[in-house]
Amino acid sequence: xxxxxxxxxxxxxxxxxxxxxxxxxxxxxxxxxxxxxxxxxxxxxxxxxxxxxxxxxxxxxxxxxxxxxxxxxxxxxxxxxxxxxxxxxxxxxxxxxxxxxxxxxxxxxxxxxxxxxxxxxxxxxxxxxxxxxxxxxxxxxxxxxxxxxxxxxxxxxxxxxxxxxxxxxxxxxxxxxxxxxxxxxxxxxxxxxxxxxxxxxxxxxxxxxxxxxxxxxxxxxxxxxxxxxxxxxxxxxxxxxxxxxxxxxxxxxxxxxxxxxxxxxxxx
Length: 268
What we know:
The protein is mainly beta. It is 4% helix and 43% strand. The longest helix has 12 residues, at 13-24.
């Protein structure tokens, strides 16, 4: 009996799917892999994008050098024109297209889950009516068109590197019914989890404060043990509008919340 030699080669499911697509052109594949491409604060007018690899519309893109984007440079914007934020502080999103261009997207958050137009699931792409841009992050821009906050990024976590008081979303809140706290000035739309520094005060021996995701019935409860103040950190999920809810035990209690950082694992 004759035996033939068989060479086995492992192929992951995505590779197999791509091979099938090459054979019969029947499989639509959109990949979302990313390594690197973190944002780095340069100065109040510039942001750097680290080198790395990224998949945009199933195209593998590799960058070996830092890309610097300057707010005042029209060529660094997706449409070749700078935006003005004189009307109010806002987010300037940053994206990569399938040709490897990295640009400011202005106040255009991701609105598509993939490059065939689906809107269900994690939104990673912004469609400009012609091109799909893979959103990799965003910076806050002041009314004088400068970057509002110094920050640093470690993987999927972004942390603010400035005074705690500069990032307050709630100061001495004393609501005894569930009340919204809008965090959108410090947290972009694609963030999934926010880390807060909190400070609570009360007049009784022990009091409690509660936090929850907007519209949720679940709660995170914390005891305030000092009549002067109790401080700590808490991580809270927010909704797509970056709103959470809080409540204190009595009107004589109060709590303050300061954004420390946020997690963007979905888009990465």
